[in-house]
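Q: Protein A?
A:
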Amino acid sequence: DRWQVADAPNDALLAFNSGQFTGRGPWGWMVRNGVEVQPPGRGPLAPAVTQDTAGRMHFVAAEAIDSVRAAGGVQFAIQSYPAVLLGDGEIPEPLRTPGQGVDLQHRDARLGLCELRSGEWLTMLSRFETLGGVLEMLPYGPTTPEMAAIAGGLGCVHAVLLDGGMSGQMLLRDTDGTTTPWAGLRKVPAGVLLTPR
């Protein structure tokens, strides 16, 4: 099955596509309603974002995923890469030095998820808007290091990029029910929904 924000149910307050994917489907760790749907992927800048049974969200570094899995209590989880901020807003070394596996020059539309210093969470979507929105769908935007700087400037302490480019999409529903969608150019293997408790 393929998903897009237009598929989000009417009670979704926020919807966006999840992490990277392969030809077969979503990449990396996925937990849905307490059931592990897919085991973790492996990579140094591939953290997970989880929600526990109490509804609290957590940023889980790649090297800590196995211990979090073993401890249990994960209600939802997604995994993606690359992490652009680690610890207290630290930009990872592969984003500061060329030749370490991350393309530092490529510009693209970006979608990211971050934890703020306050403990709140923020979803970020970059879109290239000019000529009255005519070029809004153009997959052009910040580099990965620039996205790290944007996340840091917004007060994020941990941040990871989700699948951007042609896949990047988000829907926001206001308290009066008004929706603002930013559609992607293609359907994706998985999405994330925030619904009222």
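Q: Protein B?
A:
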Amino acid sequence: TDPVIVCQDFTLELDDNGVATLDPLSLLDDTMSTEACGFDVATADITEFDCSNIGTPTMVTIFVQDPSGNIASCSAMVDVVDVNGPVLTCPDDQVRESDPATGTYTVEDFTGLATATDGCSATPTIAQDPAVGTELGVGSYTVTLTATDDLGNMSTCTFNLQVDFLGVDENELSNA
């Protein structure tokens, strides 16, 4: 007796490298598919997917064979998605001196010190908070960097920014 299989559409998520391998059995509707002896072989005509498959559902046909050699097939649509944000690496903690005249520090662009890679986007964008040009007083601050890929997936990382004050009037020379 041939196996009775019913396929169902499936959403396949790509990994951080922008690739995925489809398990053919993930297309089977377990409640509607029956085979008393189980499946000896299960394969599909397409199993490898990448970023080029995003946005265009792909028709995949699955073929199964039971231990007695009986076969069956069905087809389903596979929708490939990228749900992973870029892999973002923040710089080490930073120490900056405030302006002696104003006692403030103007936040610089730290995005060039970070790295962001993504399996499906060649150049993820990186933004920072506090923004470039923000005036900060002496103290410790958390800087948050956010990388966004072409599909809107985001990742964040943080590092510490220490703003110190070095004034000429506060130096003391000791005879010791």
